[in-house]
Design brief:
binds 6-O-phosphono-beta-D-glucopyranose; 9 helices; binds magnesium ion; 42% helix; six-stranded parallel beta sheet; DNA polymerase, domain 1; Rossmann fold; globular
């Protein structure tokens, strides 16, 4: 029986994925690499530092730790410029109705995100009060695909893994949820997240009944 839902942030609650992509493209082009949308799929759900390592690897470039720190700061500063105007209008379709519906039906809710900007973004979206717990990239040692972020969220909700459903848009996040022993609803408008238990395009028309029907264990 699902008693709690843990939401990824980027790409599930809001479409910040596109701004991450734009900022990474700028960094990649600075090292002479043309980062495509297809390359970008590898970055989704992955921490900032690991994303840079993946790009440098794709580019065949090598940087010292100090040079990497500069690039990471540049990436985040460009990203923060792009999301400065984020508002409730940027919440993805169906999210608020779904949160209200499942919370009034007694489910607990949490955010489990790799982002160090999660608290800032949730505040901009005015979504913070919809969650019983928030675990972000500042609060874990290992980021997705490691299960730590979701295990910590379940702990804060006081629920065992088998009672938690994770909602994710990235392969790294699906892998993290699976290795935490949780079921996964994938959000994917382009095709299937192959390891998710079920996929939908967005949270429009999703409700408690859908969860109980498809994820009861
Ligand atoms: C994840 C995104 O949620 O957070 C990744 O899917 C991003 O693309 C990661 O790199 C880290 O985010 P931030 O905001 O700490 O740079
Ligand atoms: Mg995501």
């Amino acid at each position: 029986m699902i008693r709690g839902v843990i939401f990824d942030l980027d790409g599930v609650l809001t479409d910040t994925a596109v701004y991450h992509y734009q900022s990474w493209r700028k960094i990649a082009s600075g090292v002479g690499f043309d980062l495509t949308e297809s390359h970008n799929e590898q970055l989704k759900g992955v921490s900032r530092a690991e994303s840079l390592d993946i790009i440098l690897n794709l580019a065949g470039a090598s940087k010292t730790d100090d040079e990497k720190s500069v690039l990471l700061a540049e990436k985040n500063s460009h990203y923060l410029e792009l999301i400065a105007g984020l508002s409730t209008a940027d919440i993805l379709p169906g999210v608020v109705d779904f949160l209200e519906n499942i919370r009034s039906g007694g489910l607990k809710t949490a955010v489990g995100s790799s982002s160090k900007n999660a608290a800032f973004i949730l505040d901009k979206l005015q979504l913070t009060s919809y969650f019983d717990a928030i675990v972000d990239g500042n609060m874990v040692k290992q980021t997705k695909p490691d299960p730590e972020v979701f295990l910590n969220a379940a702990k804060l909700l006081n629920l065992p893994s088998e009672n938690c459903l994770v909602i994710e848009d990235a392969d790294a996040g699906v892998a993290a949820a699976k290795s935490a022993g949780m079921q996964v609803l994938g959000i994917n408008s382009h095709g299937l997240l192959k390891d998710a238990d079920r996929c939908v395009q967005n949270l429009l028309n999703m409700d408690l009944q859908f969860i109980h029907t498809h994820f009861s264990s």
